[in-house]
Specification:
It holds the Pfam family NAD_binding_8. By secondary structure, the protein is of the alpha/beta class. 33% of the residues lie in helices and 25% in strands. The protein binds flavin-adenine dinucleotide.
């Protein structure tokens, strides 16, 4: 039996799941440290928003101190809204309406969420530490190794190092994700020009997936309006924590085939934005304007991959969470929510084991057995949606782009 005082957790990766688990364990009085590859907390723009569903929100409610959870809700967009599927000229095919309830679905700015998740973890997040492997160090402890030759010891190691995980090949040797034919070029554009919203009123609370006439191409956009301005909300609920500036924006993503992105463009922001402009030329003028006004340094290329179910967990007392296990294409907004759900579940299983004196290995096995079914349901759903919305199957594409839009009036005139 391990007692709370001699028990410690080392997490590789200070993304959504790693920080959420660190919050959960810190609240429970457990010694936890997070090791992050990036040299500092805000070196990458990550200028997009994510939709939190009931699983993500519940995980945050369980993990965060009350004022920080209130901060998530205070800075998020208003609840409710729609997801519209349209043709390339923004004529509606069909619409999904989200519940207008505070705890059902909320749109949050990812950078703001990360900042909230870091609050109160001073001295527990170590930047510039790139994890490369795990080994038994004896006396029931593990050693997490870093690329600079350093190492950290802990009772349990958790790999939360994202879709290109360095720990996966060792911890889940049969579960390397599969590549897909699709990728997204993401960008962000100011929501207001000369004081006016660039998004017309009928789309104010909508995410829009506009499907091109040719299969395999689509354009997504949605606006992110901060509920309360982050600096004000942080001053009230997390004084002393870093508050990102809260300018409202439009997040967009051009979905295209990976073969359409020349290899030399990867990491070249200007080339990526110009590619997005060329490939969105056939879409509604509103979409073209979004690409033309995009902030260059927020441009990101994301090749889509799908995780494979792990059959074997190779290192006892080491486990994994989030995209490192269950990478999925960003259809249906499940990736981050599933990652947060993993963190709260693993946190609760570890805390229960310590309280009841059951072996930590059993707690980790229970976590893995519960996580794999729900996480891979989400992977299958996301991959299925991607195939239906961007695949080559002629009938669904024809119905979405030719039949259904004719049944609706024009939503956004092309003036
Ligand atoms: C444009 C876009 C929109 C999205 N929208 C949504 C949405 O609406 N809803 C939703 O649920 N999900 C969404 N997602 C998916 C979501 O962002 C991810 O699923 C989520 O961030 C996964 O969390 P994670 O903790 O597993 O990994 P991440 O948040 O990616 O964090 C991994 C961390 O590990 C660090 N790291 C990497 N390698 C190492 C290493 N070797 N050692 C130490 N640290 C390392 C990375 O720097 C990073 O900080 C979206 C994704 C994209 C790209």
């Amino acid at each position: 039996m391990v007692t709370t005082t001699e028990f410690s957790v080392a997490i590789a990766g200070a993304g959504l799941s790693g920080l959420c688990l660190a919050q959960y364990l810190t609240r429970a009085g457990i010694d936890v440290h997070v090791y992050e590859r990036d040299p500092g907390p805000f070196v990458r723009r990550q200028g997009y928003r994510i939709i939190l569903d009931r699983f993500g929100l519940e995980a945050l409610r369980e993990s965060l101190p009350r004022p920080l959870f209130r901060l998530v809700l205070a800075t998020s967009d208003e609840p409710g809204g729609h997801l519209r599927f349209t043709d390339s000229r923004l004529r509606d095919a069909f619409t999904i309406t989200f519940k207008d309830e505070a705890h059902a679905t909320r749109q949050v700015d990812r950078l703001t969420l990360r900042s909230i998740l870091q609050s109160g973890l001073d001295g527990r997040i170590h930047y510039g530490h790139s994890a490369i492997g795990v080994e038994e160090s004896g006396r029931g402890r593990l050693r997490l190794h870093f690329s600079d030759g350093g190492a950290a010891e802990a009772s349990v190691v958790v790999g939360a190092d994202g879709v290109r995980s360095a720990l996966r090949a060792q911890l889940m040797p049969d579960a390397e994700p599969a590549n897909t034919p699709m990728a997204g070029v993401y960008g962000r554009s100011p929501l207001r020009r000369n004081g006016e919203s660039v998004i017309p009123e009928p789309l104010r609370t909508s995410g829009v997936l506009s499907i091109a006439d040719r299969p395999g191409r689509a354009f997504f956009f949605t606006s992110m309006r901060f509920g309360e301005n982050p600096p004000d909300a942080f001053a009230r609920l997390a004084p002393g924590s870093y508050a990102p500036t809260g300018d409202d924006y439009v997040m967009w993503g051009l979905l295209l085939r990976q073969v359409e992105v020349p290899f030399s463009f990867r990491g070249d922001l200007l080339a990526l934005r110009e590619l997005a402009a060329r490939k969105s030329a056939g879409f509604h003028p509103l979409i073209q304007r979004l690409v033309d006004t995009a902030e260059l340094d927020a441009t990101v290329l994301n090749p889509f991959a799908t995780g494979r179910r792990p059959r074997r967990w190779a290192v006892p007392r080491a486990t994994m969470m989030g995209d490192a296990v269950h990478a999925m294409p960003p259809f249906g907004a499940h990736g981050g929510n599933t990652a947060l759900r993993d963190a709260a579940l693993l946190g609760s299983r570890l805390v229960e084991a310590l309280a009841s004196g059951t072996p930590v290995e059993d707690a980790i096995t229970r976590y893995q057995n519960e996580m794999v079914p729900y996480a891979f349901r989400a992977v299958d759903t996301a991959a299925g949606l991607m195939r239906r919305l961007t695949g080559n199957a002629a009938a669904p594409h024809w119905v979405l782009t030719r039949v259904l839009p004719r049944l609706h009036r024009v939503t956004v005139p092309e003036a």
